[in-house]
Automatic annotation (TrEMBL):
It comes from Brevibacillus borstelensis AK1. Residues 242-379 form the AAA+ ATPase domain. The lineage of its organism: Bacteria, Bacillati, Bacillota, Bacilli, Bacillales. It holds the Pfam family AAA_lid_3. Coiled coil: none annotated. Keywords: ATP-binding, Cell cycle, Cell division, Coiled coil, Nucleotide-binding. Belongs to the AAA ATPase family. GO terms for molecular function: ATP binding; ATP hydrolysis activity. Residues 141-160 have a biased composition (Acidic residues). This is Cell division cycle protein 48-like protein.
């Protein structure tokens, strides 16, 4: 097996692993690295972007951003290298202007026939020159243009009538004119993003009734976000804009995306989710156009709610960024949120991030994401409902969700799902070894809880340092109050 086949097998295996475990950021990272090493830059960007969505490790996240930037730069270099094509195109146009586009080729081995009596016979020198030029064109452009001409029957018939005056019979085939195109015979291997049918946004059906617990968070969102949508007359009386930006921040896996979708359902507004793959494009200027198009769509369907997941990827702090590639995207984002020629009235922009301190400060100023809402780990009631939901439909018996909720302080929704999954794996492993089938029981869940720790603790400890030294403006007062309440346990 040569190196190329080995690389393809490795890529295929990594793709299967990524499909099997879509939330494994490490798998997406190594798949992107393998694709990049084989020159598949566009697929590598897609893999890095998918991994960023599930990445919870800050160091790995920085690796994702670095590799994503490198892959994008490579695609830009490829696009720059293909800029020589317009020069060939210009030469083709010049040839067409001199009349070379109207010459007719002579098939190999075919004898030249005289033109009919009604038409003046051109001098033989012209035939020889035409023959020579045609031979040169065939060598220059190859068989691709010949196939193109055979497919273009109308133009071929027109040229035959113009130069032949009658049908040619050489080798049992009709003479076709050979016309110089305004482009060389090049085949496009990959032209960037594939066109896809645009899906119109629809009204969201998820509401706060589908969100377990989190009553304080719901109350805050109703007061700051939902009330303006239902009392537009009152707010307009005080010239208070309905819309703007809200930034949801908190530990990963605590339901920021689901809360945003439920908020749109409560507002009875059109929900427009925006992913990084919808925005980023390897060609210069296209990312900015994609972002502007998403804002135009939201304004067209207002009242609407735009949701930017992992907003720190698009709006990364420019003072910390080592690449200039994202500066244009951030500038466009700032302009669309509050610019001279733009308006977000009745368009609410919700951003979600695990790293609010990495979001560009210009995005957090009044008029943009001026309202920051902390999405804390699920409370006791929410955890109890989550255990009930995650174990529903499984082969389980004698489960006490309340006890489980009391012993899972600081566990995120993703952590609770992981506990249930690992308990099921323990039971399945035992069944495969003993051959005796049994349900999931409390002892299995207790065993798992003795082995795992909540993933939110690392985030809360990091946030504690930022709040202590970087909360002079009061943006992180919500998390400061949370840490004051649970600080000793963290």
């Amino acid at each position: 097996m040569n190196g190329g086949e080995h690389a393809l097998e490795k890529i295929q295996w990594l793709r299967q692993m990524a499909a099997k475990h879509p939330e494994d950021a490490q798998t997406h990272f190594w798949l992107g690295k393998e694709l990049a090493e084989n020159g598949l830059w566009l697929e590598a960007i897609s893999s890095y972007s998918a991994g960023l969505t599930y990445c919870e490790n800050e160091e790995l996240r920085n690796d994702f951003i670095r590799e994503l930037s490198l892959a994008t730069q490579q695609l830009q270099q490829q696009a720059t290298g293909s800029a020589a094509a317009p020069a060939v195109q210009k030469n083709s146009s010049a040839a067409s202007a001199t009349g070379m586009s109207n010459v007719a080729p002579l098939a190999k081995g075919m004898e030249t026939e005289n033109i009919g009596e009604k038409n003046e016979a051109p001098p033989q020198e012209t035939d020889h020159k035409r023959d020579g030029r045609n031979h040169s064109l065939q060598n220059d452009f190859g068989e691709d243009d010949e196939k193109y001409d055979e497919a273009d029957d109308d133009n071929s018939d027109y040229e035959d009538d113009r130069y032949a005056g009658s049908q040619g019979t050489g080798a049992g085939r009709q003479n076709h004119s050979y016309k110089v195109k305004n482009h060389p015979g090049l085949k496009i291997i990959d032209g960037g993003q594939r066109e896809k049918k645009e899906e119109l946004p629809t009204l969201n059906k998820v509401t706060f009734e589908d969100v377990a617990g989190l009553h304080e968070l719901k109350k805050t969102i109703r007061l700051r976000i939902i009330s303006p949508f239902f009392n537009q007359g009152l707010f307009s009386k005080f010239r208070k804009k309905v819309g703007g930006g809200v930034l949801l921040y908190g530990p990963p896996g605590c339901g920021k995306t689901f809360v945003a979708r439920a908020t749109a359902g409560e507002c009875k507004a059109t929900f427009v989710p925006v992913h990084i793959t919808d925005i980023l494009d390897p060609y210069i200027g296209v990312s900015e156009q994609n972002l502007k198009a998403m804002f135009d769509k939201a304004r067209h369907h207002k009242p609407s709610i735009m949701f930017f997941d992992e907003i720190d990827t698009i709006g990364y702090n420019r003072s910390k960024s080592s690449s200039n590639y994202m500066r244009g995207v951030i500038d466009t984002f700032l302009s669309e949120m509050e610019g001279i020629d733009t308006s977000t009235d009745q368009v609410l922009i919700i951003g979600a991030t695990n790293l609010p301190w990495d979001v560009d400060n210009a995005l957090k100023r009044p008029g943009r994401f001026d309202r920051l809402i902390f999405v804390a780990p699920p409370d006791l009631e929410a955890r109890e409902q989550m255990f009930t939901l995650k174990l529903h439909g499984r082969f389980a018996k004698g489960i006490d969700p309340h006890w489980l909720a009391k012993h899972t302080e600081f566990f995120s929704g993703a952590d609770i799902e992981n506990v249930c999954e690992r308990a099921a794996e323990l039971v399945l492993e035992e069944i495969l070894e003993t051959g005796v089938e049994r349900p999931i029981m409390m002892k299995d869940l207790e065993t798992v809880l003795s082995e795992v720790k909540p993933t939110t603790l690392d985030w809360l400890r990091t946030a504690k340092n930022y709040v202590k030294y970087s909360n002079h403006s009061g943006l992180y007062n919500d998390i400061e109050a949370y840490l004051r309440k649970f600080g000793r346990q963290i």
